[in-house]
Specification:
Blueprint lengths: L2 E5 L4 E4 L2 E4 L5 E5 L5 E3 L12 H14 L4 H18 L4 H12 L3 H25 L1
Antiparallel strand pairs: 1-4, 2-3, 2-5
Length: about 130
């Protein structure tokens, strides 16, 4: 049994390493094999990766969709997480979860955990703003 996805007009998604955009009407696709798939709302562009935790998400996203230099993606990821942990030690638990998924080759799960890291970063930044 495949994965059925329904696409909104002009919705963008990544299938494998390809960025695909739907046409002007709704569409339904059935993916018959196991391939990395990210829908538009879960895709982060390089321009949108404007905070340390978003850059971590982006590096995991590159690992998930594949098609590139995995060694480089992993090196970038570890550099970024070291910087974030030094700046905000309270992120260790979330980063440990992401790292465990990465080391297990579970990149989609790592992405979900990275999304939680972004939400945590936003709460931290808001807290600092409110405190000053």
């Amino acid at each position: 049994m495949g994965l059925k996805i329904e696409l909104k007009p002009h919705e963008r998604f990544i299938l494998g390493g390809a960025v695909v955009r739907n046409g002007s009407s709704r569409a339904e696709l059935i993916i018959e094999n196991n391939v990395p798939l990210l829908r538009g709302k879960n895709i982060l562009s390089v321009e949108e990766a404007d905070t340390p935790c978003k850059r971590i998400f982006f590096s995991v996203q590159l690992m998930y969709v594949g098609g590139g230099d995995m060694k480089s993606y992993h090196r970038t990821y570890w550099e970024l997480v070291n910087e974030v942990v030094k700046a905000a030690p309270s992120t260790v638990g979330l980063i440990d979860t992401i790292s465990e998924h990465i080391l297990g080759g579970q990149y989609y799960q790592a992405l979900k955990a990275a999304r939680e890291l972004i939400e945590y970063e936003e709460r931290l930044v808001n807290h600092v703003r409110e405190s000053s």
